[in-house]
Specification:
about 50% helix, Rossmann fold, Alpha-Beta Plaits, 12 helices, about 325 residues
Length: about 325
């Protein structure tokens, strides 16, 4: 049983928990996990795993700010886990600190060679561990800010098309290896040209920002991504989400945009807006590339508009439409 199941539940979004640094503790000895949990739980969001494969899974799903990683573990040792983290675009920027009883110079050098930022021997001083974690979390967040500027849409503050394209390529390569589900949503603001003509381009820009904020706040997991695709069109990438789940999420987002842009909620001087959403879900037996996934979503978006807009459409039949 993963020791993470014995720790207090954490919520991945919202409120004070989200503002705390995320820390993943990986050690095959539960007593060490519990010790580090007590050290960091007051001011960190702590996740835990007792073996390497689970650590890789949690790292992808929860996107921690730092990983404290034991070296000697069954199946995958810490060095192999670190190498796999650094080979994955979703986790390569997460700093890793090795905590291990094998504190000889050769092990330390090897740990740094495979991508760790620090190496602390056991038994460790908790004040030293806290200080080093604080330093590397600060550096990580500064790096995240710089990377965010590169991949940020200047108008809406969400991811830009470049970021989406890179993430899509990574996720498509992953599902080809693992067979995991993957879905995408193409989202279009209904009658946006009419909106601009009626209320002006400044109000149009404000509308797009409000729609982007509603979409971003409606996503449920750190690995979900919303980006501005171009003009009044947005796109969501939903890893580990099948067609049914994607359609459910699309309907939630459709309703959320309409609710969050109501004048009484947003304070805007113009009426609420609606969106049309097309769902695409990966099917490796029929799709040859990520472009096919987006094509299905685009065809379903066309169906949603043809049905009168303010609607969600999904289904594999769109590929042959």
């Amino acid at each position: 049983m993963d020791i993470a199941q014995t720790l207090p539940a954490e919520t991945p979004f919202g409120g004070e928990l989200e503002r705390r640094p995320r820390l993943l503790v990986v050690d095959d000895q539960p007593v060490n996990v519990q010790l580090l949990y007590r050290v960091f739980a007051a001011d960190h969001q702590v996740f835990a795993a007792t073996e390497g494969n689970k650590a890789l899974e949690i790292a992808r799903q929860q996107q921690p700010d730092l990983i404290l990683l034991d070296v000697v573990m069954p199946e995958l040792d810490g060095f192999e886990v670190c190498q796999r983290l650094k080979a994955d675009q979703l986790t390569r920027d997460i700093p890793v600190i090795f905590l291990t009883a094998n504190a000889d110079p050769e092990s330390e050098a090897h740990g740094l060679d495979v991508g760790a930022v620090d190496f602390i021997g056991k038994p460790f001083n908790t004040k030293v561990v806290r200080a080093r974690v604080k330093t590397h979390v600060t550096l990580k967040r500064q790096g995240d800010l710089l990377r965010r500027w590169v991949f940020l849409d200047g108008l809406t503050g969400i991811a830009n098309r470049r970021h989406f394209d890179e993430r899509l390529a990574v996720e498509w390569a992953r599902i080809q290896r693992s067979g995991a589900p993957l879905s995408a949503l193409l989202i279009d603001v209904d009658h946006f040209k009419r909106f601009n003509d009626s209320h002006g381009h400044q109000s149009g820009d404000d509308c797009l920002r409000r729609v982007a904020a509603a979409l971003a706040s409606g996503l449920q997991r750190p690995t979900d991504l919303v980006a501005r695709y171009g003009g009044e069109e947005f796109v969501c990438l939903l890893p580990d989400t099948d067609g049914y789940g994607a359609q459910h999420m699309a309907e939630q987002l459709r309703q959320r945009v309409h609710q969050e842009t109501q004048p009484g909620v947003s304070g805007a001087p113009w009426p609420a807006v609606t969106v049309s959403i097309g769902v695409g879900s990966a099917r490796l037996d029929l799709m040859h590339s990520a472009d096919d996934l987006l094509r299905e979503a685009d065809l379903n978006l066309y169906r949603a508009k043809k049905a009168g807009r303010n609607a969600v459409r999904a289904g594999a039949a769109a590929l042959s439409a």
